[in-house]
Design brief:
The structure is a single chain. With 120 residues, this protein is mainly beta. Helices cover 0% and strands 55% of the residues. It contains no helices and eleven strands. Strands 2, 4, 5, 6, 9, 10 and 11 form a seven-stranded mixed beta sheet that branches. Strands 1-3-8-7 form a four-stranded antiparallel beta sheet, with no helix packed on it.
C-alpha cells in the first residue's frame, strides 16, 4: 500500500533548472532516510543525494554545488532542486525512502522514475 510518486521531470536546456518532487502515501508509521538516484541511458543507477529524517544531507561529487535535496516531513515529500543543468545530467531519476509501514520494521521503497533530459 505504500507508494512513492515522482513529478517534475521534463526537457530543459543546458544551464536551466528543474525541481523534482516525490510524495509518499499509504500506510506509513514513519519515514527515515530519503534519497534521489538516477540512471543515465546505458549506465548503472547511481546515488545523487540523500537526506536524513533530521535534515542532514550528502551529495555525489558530480552534482555538489548545483543540486539541493530537501524534505517536508509533514507532507511525506522529498524534493530535488537542480540548477545549472548539464547534458550529462540526462537520466531517469528515482526517489527512494526507508519507510516503516508499522512499528515492526522498515522497507526500502522506490518510485517509478521520472525522465530528465538536458539538451539544446
Amino acid at each position: 500500500q505504500v507508494q512513492l510518486v515522482e513529478s517534475g521531470g521534463g526537457l530543459v536546456q543546458p544551464g536551466g533548472s528543474l525541481r523534482l518532487s516525490c510524495a509518499a502515501s499509504g500506510t506509513i508509521f514513519s519515514i527515515n532516510d530519503m534519497a534521489w538516484y538516477r540512471q543515465p541511458p546505458g549506465e548503472q543507477r547511481e546515488l545523487v543525494a540523500s537526506i536524513t529524517r533530521g535534515g542532514g544531507t550528502d551529495y555525489a561529487d558530480s552534482v555538489k554545488g548545483r543540486f539541493t535535496i530537501s524534505r517536508d516531513n509533514a507532507k511525506n515529500t522529498v524534493y530535488l532542486e537542480m540548477n545549472s543543468l548539464k547534458p550529462e545530467d540526462t537520466a531517469v531519476y528515482y526517489c527512494n525512502a526507508d519507510i516503516a509501514p508499522t512499528r515492526l520494521r522498515t522497507y526500502y521503497y522506490w518510485g517509478q522514475g521520472t525522465q530528465v533530459t538536458v539538451s539544446s
